[in-house]
Amino acid sequence: MSPTQGSHSDVEDDRSGVEASEDRNPEFQIQKGKRPYVKTAARLAAARANLQKARAAPKEKVYRRTEKRLAAKRANLAKARAARQQELEEIVARLDIVFPL
């Protein structure tokens, strides 16, 4: 298997490179009380498992209608209507300047 195909050994190779660069580079040391994020094999496996679960969920559940989504939709529509109304008022104001009565 070539390195471009992405195997488990690639993860270990990338990880060893990160650990080696941490030892040599002071930028990777703790700054402002925060540790640098290290992608471990366990974290990658957990993330992949979460993605598989999310993809396996039925679309009816993922895209279901909820009160929160409906409220957000209505709020976005109200904002869009207000923005469009504002644009129209600006156009009318410019036309009144160019073509006075």
Descriptive notes:
With 101 residues, the chain is mainly alpha-helical. It folds into two domains: 56 residues, no CATH class; 36 residues. Helices cover 68% and strands 0% of the residues. The chain has four helices and no strands. The radius of gyration is 27 Å and the shape is elongated. The N and C termini lie far apart (79 Å). The N terminus is likely disordered.
Summarize the structure.
The protein has 101 residues and is an all-alpha fold.
Structural class: mainly alpha
Number of helical stretches of at least 4 residues: 4
Largest sheet: none
The stretches of 5 or more residues where confidence is low (pLDDT under 50) are 1-13
Order of helices and strands: HHHH
What gross morphology would you assign? elongated
Key descriptive features of the protein:
101 residues, 2 domains, 68% helix, elongated
Q: What secondary-structure arrangement, pairings included, does this model have?
A:
Blueprint: H1 8-24, H2 41-56, H3 59-62, H4 67-98
